[in-house]
């Protein structure tokens, strides 16, 4: 069984955070236009 390392967790969290930031940026652009 594969054990998830702290590094892997941090990496996936960063990916999710980047996606959230992108969605927010896209959303604010939509509101502005």
From TrEMBL:
Q: What is this protein called?
A: Biotin operon repressor
